[in-house]
């Protein structure tokens, strides 16, 4: 009896010891993990950014309201998805990303005000945001003055390079030249009709296009037209195009006007079977509003399409749809916005610091082989190396992807 | 002159006005600069530039009965004049050396314009710019005013036509981007005569200049209203025919008031450019023009000082709610419009304008409540 | 010979483009002409009533797609768009407008507030993205009476709809007892009251009818363009200009002014860029209004 009880006591004692030692080792391990997880804040943040031992704060600055909300909501969603995924995988330098969302409300001065707030008051380590060129131009002086870091997702007119901005979309020459080459080669196009919404991106893009068509492709521009943003009546323009009989209609119509533009083309019997139309402004987002019938067999030149076949993209599309609903669509800019947080993460980890200067210095040469569009690399001019793809629209909002054309990013300083 | 003004006020038994003005001055010149950091103070400065427009609207809408839905035109013109000067200063040949044509604004270079357009040339001169800020919008207002008021266009028609002009100007600015910067506006303004306007000290100084100008504008308007002109304006708003039959030239009176309001807006626009560092067509269009009317309506269309509070409050609300509940803001803004028009035709100032009356009203309401009569019937009546 | 025939077809097509724009402008302006012209109320939320009609069509189309009557739904959608916009207008008049008849400028501000609220409500219900109703196949294509001439079916449909609606409005305003009451109320409210017309009721129905017409315009418009929360606000100034340019209280004036503005803009668009065409059209309208403040065709009324 007594031996038994002694035995039991000893048994208990041993098990307590074992448990205790486990706990001890466990806590040691945990402690060690915390230590290993992130370098001390003083080391990774020497410029007073909003970085604590466990968190780092970033800003998200898009229009959630106003006319641009249509386009920008996709970008917000993609950025938040990327940040969620980064956090789920342990964050950056052991710190979870916290987001301060600001609404630019489709009003450029408001963007500047909010950007100042994010940089001066919130001291965010990076900002993901802006969509229109106008909003970027409005915040640019703020970012340069306060030395912030902006990841800008939209394809845009180029002619810009700022130390404080990483451009994750394509600039105009990347998007235009390869597309024009393609349409000349495969369709034998000689005459072009250029159409755009009336602001800087379409105008600059068409200027680049015209130069390339006339000087390199030895083609002819038979018309160049601009309509105010929000125009819903394109019938006169369509008549003009019909009269000019171009081989290619080159369209840079943006926003809500897209719907009227394509519906009226279809109504005027300009369809993909009889005409070649190449656009650099119509993505899955717009097509959802236009309806597949009206864009059937027209072409888009983009670096990304939702139907791109590669494992990265399949994962990305599945995650996006899981988070935002099965009927959500992903356009070019949405994907480019998704790259922002990942590129920032890679640069921060390479720099070993959140300091803007160090992250900027580390950025050129960053490669991302997990990008949904395939592979991207940050060039020294803060733009991405990426491929251009031509997609042909089909009835159900998806694209047949035609061909890959590799171009390095070019910048007209 | 100020002494005369002061005595005029006191003899006119308008002491409460004086007190209110002093309170506003105290708030703008002492309390806010002490209470807010420079970021928020700069925002207040921006709001105060809208207050210029609101004060102008008190004159022409509240007293003159001329509702202009195009004050953005003048705000924009003033702002653009200033922005053109600052942009030229920022685009000296050295800092624009990488352009294909150095020495012209960057957006012109992007649009492949080779030489500075003629109407930009005079804006190299600061004195010309100052004159242009004051004269150009006023002149434009004069032309509109002559065309409309001489033909006795008023009321609703005037409102709609000013709105159309605001629309035209926006489309024009956006369409001529090589000359105007297009939808981006004129951005990246840095220095004023070599003085960096983006530093904190510059922001403080500009804020004070702005506040002082605004207070000066209010004093000037107050003087205008207490003169014979003010009386005529009120008479005009209430019974235009009688004023006309009494032998006054109603049209000239209206044109003058409209010009003064335009001048105020232009000064506001120029101060906006200086404090915010850029100007864009989004201040010229219909929406901002109508919002500016709302600042006035909220503050009280008959109260110069109320208009300032209206501009401050609505914009504070906008900033605050868009930071916290962005979606709620438009509902609130809409409700504010409807509510003020329905229940407070004289705005917030209607509540405070006559302290005695307000007090009587409160006393009355309280008594009525106690007597369990129908308290809903009691509302501050505008007139 | 080929040259002349191309020129001819282009001219024809250009004329048709102008007619389509005219139909749209007139459909939008009719409701406003009634509200503003007859009642003197400035309804800045008029565009949002159009949007109601457009969204109604969108809802009907998704419903029709699910239940397989996509080819027939459009007529139903028109009726529903009218009914819903009419009801909303009735409600708005009851809640707000009737309190402001004596202050026309204030209705402008209050209804602007209403339009803000409605836009945000649309945004929350339907999302910020633009939507576009699925159209029956017969509405999307074009009709070719001769080679080289493509008349968009949707354009023809809007044209026919415009004719029907305009005729309906004319019947109601000038050939019905109700129309007599409305015009009597406009011309002299006190006397109208005295002879036993229920002017309050007339006001309410008139306002609601104007809004209902906006609903029809929205339903028609969504077949050629898209619908978003702020779609309506894009047209409000143009629509007001049409009404003012035509002379407020005149149905014929509104028709003539919509025709002039549409053909001018459409023609100018053919000759120069869209932006400049818009500027020149608006400037001419404003200049003419400055010279002739009462509009093109107005009933002379001493104020």
Quick structural gist:
Chain A has 413 residues and is of the alpha/beta class. Chain A is built from 14 helices and 14 strands.
Largest sheet of chain A: 9 strands, mixed
DSSP summary, beta strand count of chain B: 2
Into which percent range does the helicity of residues of chain B fall? over 70%
The fold-level CATH name of the largest domain in chain A is Rossmann fold
Distance between the termini of chain A: 92 Å
What would you report as the Rg of chain A, rounded to the nearest angstrom?
26 Å
Strand order of the largest sheet of chain B: 1-2
Mean pLDDT of chain B: 84
Q: How many helices of chain B does DSSP assign?
A: 17
Say what oligomer this is.
Answer: heterotrimer
The total tally of domains of chain A equals 2
How large is the share of residues in beta strands of chain A? 15-25%
Low-confidence stretches of chain A: 1-6, 28-36, 404-413
What string gives the helices and strands of chain A in order? HHEHEHEHEEHEHEHEHEHHEHHHEEEE
Biggest interface reads:
A-C, 41 and 45 residues
Q: Helical proportion of chain A?
A: 40-55%
Helix count of chain A equals: 14
What would your notes on this structure say?
- The complex is a heterotrimer of chains A (413), B (383) and C (303).
- Chain A folds into two domains: 55-170 and 309-382, Response regulator (Rossmann fold); 173-302 and 394-407, Rossmann fold (3-Layer(aba) Sandwich).
- Helix content of chain A is 47%, strand content 20%.
- Chain A has helices spanning 2-37, 41-44, 69-88, 108-121, 133-146, 172-187, 200-216, 235-244, 257-267, 284-290, 292-295, 311-324, 332-351, 356-362, and strands at 55-62, 96-103, 127-129, 150-152, 165-167, 191-197, 220-227, 248-252, 276-279, 299-302, 367-371, 374-378, 384-393, 399-407.
- In chain A, α4 (108-121) runs parallel beside α5.
- The model of chain A is unreliable at 1-6, 28-36 and 404-413 (pLDDT under 50).
- Chain B is an all-alpha fold and 383 residues long.
- Helices cover 72% and strands 1% of the residues of chain B.
- Chain B has a two-stranded antiparallel ribbon with strand order 1-2.
- Chain B has one domain (17-286).
- In chain B, β1 and β2 form a beta hairpin.
- Chain B has helices spanning 2-11, 15-35, 38-63, 71-90, 106-110, 126-149, 155-175, 177-180, 200-226, 228-238, 240-245, 250-276, 286-299, 304-324, 326-343, 347-352, 355-370, and strands at 191-192, 195-196.
- With 303 residues, chain C is mainly α.
- The longest helix of chain C has 38 residues, at 2-39.
- Chain C is globular, with a radius of gyration of 20 Å.
- Chain C has helices at residues 2-39, 46-67, 73-95, 104-126, 137-140, 153-174, 177-187, 189-194, 199-221, 236-246, 251-271, 274-291; strands at 142-146, 149-152.
- Chain C has a two-stranded antiparallel ribbon with strand order 1-2.
- Classes of the chains: A alpha/beta (413), B mainly alpha (383), C mainly alpha (303).
- The A-C interface holds A 64-67, 69-70, 73, 198, 225-228, 230-233, 235-240, 242-243, 256, 258-260, 263-264, 266-269, 285, 288-291, 293-294 and C 6, 10, 13-14, 16-17, 20-21, 24, 120, 123, 128-132, 134-135, 140-142, 144, 150, 152-155, 221, 223-226, 228, 230-231, 234, 266-267, 269-270, 273-275, 277-278.
């Amino acid at each position: 009896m007594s031996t038994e009880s002694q035995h039991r006591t000893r048994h208990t004692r041993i098990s307590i010891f074992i448990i205790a030692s486990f706990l001890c080792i466990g806590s040691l391990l945990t402690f060690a993990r915390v230590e290993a997880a992130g370098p001390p804040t003083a080391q990774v943040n020497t410029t007073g950014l909003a970085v604590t031992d466990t968190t780092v704060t970033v800003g998200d600055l898009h229009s959630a309201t106003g006319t641009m909300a249509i386009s920008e909501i996709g970008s917000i969603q993609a950025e938040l998805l990327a940040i969620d995924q980064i956090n789920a995988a342990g964050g950056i330098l052991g710190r979870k990303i916290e987001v301060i969302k600001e609404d630019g409300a489709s009003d450029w001065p408001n963007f500047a005000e909010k950007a100042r707030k994010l940089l001066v008051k919130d001291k965010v380590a990076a900002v993901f945001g802006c969509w229109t060129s106008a909003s970027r131009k409005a915040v640019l002086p703020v970012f340069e003055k306060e030395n912030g870091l902006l990841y800008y997702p939209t394809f845009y007119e180029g002619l810009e390079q700022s130390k404080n901005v990483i451009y994750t979309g394509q600039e105009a020459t990347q998007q235009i030249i390869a597309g024009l080459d393609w349409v000349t080669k495969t369709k034998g196009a000689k005459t072009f009709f250029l159409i755009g919404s009336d602001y800087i991106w379409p105008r600059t893009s068409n200027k680049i296009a015209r130069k390339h068509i006339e000087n390199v492709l030895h083609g002819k521009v038979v018309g160049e037209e601009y309509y105010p943003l929000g125009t819903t009546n394109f019938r006169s323009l369509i008549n003009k195009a019909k009269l000019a009989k171009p081989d290619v209609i080159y369209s840079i119509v943006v926003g809500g006007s897209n719907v009227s533009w394509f519906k009226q083309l279809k109504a005027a019997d300009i369809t993909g079977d009889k005409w070649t139309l190449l656009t650099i402004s119509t993505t899955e987002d717009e097509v959802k509003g236009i309806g597949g019938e009206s864009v059937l067999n027209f072409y888009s030149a983009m670096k990304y399409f939702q139907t791109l076949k590669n494992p990265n993209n399949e994962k990305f599309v599945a995650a996006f749809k899981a988070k935002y609903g099965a009927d959500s669509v992903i356009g070019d800019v949405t994907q480019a916005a998704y790259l922002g947080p990942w590129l920032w993460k890679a640069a921060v980890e390479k720099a070993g610091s959140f300091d803007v200067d160090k992250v900027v210095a580390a950025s050129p040469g960053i490669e991302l082989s997990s990008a949904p569009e395939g592979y991207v690399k940050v060039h020294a001019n803060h733009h991405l190396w990426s491929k251009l793809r031509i997609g042909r629209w089909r009835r159900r909002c998806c694209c047949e992807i035609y061909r890959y054309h590799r171009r390095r990013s070019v910048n007209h300083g | 002159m100020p002494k005369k003004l002061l005595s005029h006020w006191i003899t006119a038994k308008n002491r409460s006005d004086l007190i209110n003005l002093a309170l506003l001055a105290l708030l703008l010149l002492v309390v806010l600069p002490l209470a807010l950091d420079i970021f928020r103070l700069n925002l207040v400065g921006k709001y105060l530039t809208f207050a210029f427009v609101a004060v102008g609207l008190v004159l022409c809408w509240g007293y003159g009965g001329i509702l202009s839905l195009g004050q953005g035109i003048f705000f924009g013109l003033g702002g653009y004049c200033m922005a053109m000067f600052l942009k030229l200063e920022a685009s000296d040949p050295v800092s624009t050396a990488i352009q294909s044509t150095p020495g012209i604004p960057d957006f012109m270079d992007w649009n492949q314009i080779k030489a500075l357009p003629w109407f930009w040339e005079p804006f190299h001169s600061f004195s010309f710019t100052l004159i242009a800020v004051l004269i150009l919008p006023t002149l434009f207002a004069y032309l509109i005013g002559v065309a409309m008021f001489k033909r006795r266009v008023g009321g609703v028609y005037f409102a709609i036509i000013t709105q159309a002009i605001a629309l035209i100007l926006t489309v024009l600015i956006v369409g001529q981007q090589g000359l105007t910067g297009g939808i981006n506006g004129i951005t990246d303004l840095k220095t004023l005569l070599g003085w960096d306007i983006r530093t904190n000290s510059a922001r403080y100084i500009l804020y004070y200049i702005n506040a002082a100008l605004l207070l000066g504008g209010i004093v000037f308007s107050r003087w205008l209203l207490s003169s014979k002109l003010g009386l005529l304006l009120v008479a005009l708003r209430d019974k235009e025919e009688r004023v006309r039959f009494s032998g006054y030239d109603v049209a000239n009176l209206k044109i003058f008031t409209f010009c003064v309001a335009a001048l105020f807006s232009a000064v506001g626009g120029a101060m906006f450019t200086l404090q915010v560092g850029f100007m864009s067509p989004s201040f010229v269009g219909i929406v901002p023009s109508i919002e500016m009317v709302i600042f006035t309506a909220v503050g009280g269309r008959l109260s110069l000082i109320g208009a300032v509070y209206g501009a401050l409050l609505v914009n504070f609300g906008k900033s605050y709610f868009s930071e916290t509940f962005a979606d709620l803001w438009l509902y609130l803004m809409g409700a504010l419009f409807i509510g003020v028009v329905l229940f407070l035709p004289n705005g917030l100032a209607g509540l405070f304008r006559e302290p005695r009356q307000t007090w009587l009203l409160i006393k009355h309401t309280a008594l009525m409540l106690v007597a369990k009569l129908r308290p809903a019937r009691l509302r501050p009546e505008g007139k | 010979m080929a040259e002349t025939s191309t020129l001819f077809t282009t001219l024809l097509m250009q004329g048709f483009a102008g007619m389509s724009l005219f139909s749209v402008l007139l459909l939008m302006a009719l409701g406003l002409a009634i509200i503003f012209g007859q009642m003197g109320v400035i309804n800045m939320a008029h565009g949002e009533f159009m949007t109601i009609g457009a969204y109604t069509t969108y809802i009907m189309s998704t419903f029709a797609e699910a239940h397989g009557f996509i080819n027939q739904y459009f007529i139903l959608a028109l009726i529903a768009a009218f009914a819903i916009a009419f009801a909303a207008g009735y409600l708005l008049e009851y809640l707000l407008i009737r309190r402001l008849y004596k202050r026309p400028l204030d209705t402008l501000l209050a209804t602007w507030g209403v339009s803000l609220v409605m836009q945000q409500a649309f945004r929350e219900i339907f999302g910020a993205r633009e939507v576009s109703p699925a159209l029956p196949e017969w509405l999307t294509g074009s009709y070719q009476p001769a080679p080289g001439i493509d008349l968009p079916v949707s354009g023809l449909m809007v044209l026919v709809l415009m004719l029907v609606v305009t005729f309906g409005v004319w019947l109601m305003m000038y050939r019905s007892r109700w129309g007599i009451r409305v015009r009597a109320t406009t011309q002299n409210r006190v006397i109208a009251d005295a002879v036993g017309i229920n002017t309050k009721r007339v006001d309410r129905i008139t306002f609601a009818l104007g809004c209902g017409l906006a609903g029809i315009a929205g339903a028609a418009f969504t077949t050629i363009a898209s619908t978003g929360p702020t779609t309506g606000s894009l047209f409000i100034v143009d629509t007001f200009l049409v009404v003012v340019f035509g002379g407020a209280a005149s149905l014929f004036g509104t028709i003539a002014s919509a025709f002039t503005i549409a053909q001018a803009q459409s023609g100018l668009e053919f000759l120069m860029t869209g932006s400049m065409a818009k500027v020149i059209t608006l400037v001419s309208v404003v200049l003419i209004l400055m010279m002739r403040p009462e509009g093109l065709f107005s009933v002379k009324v001493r104020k």
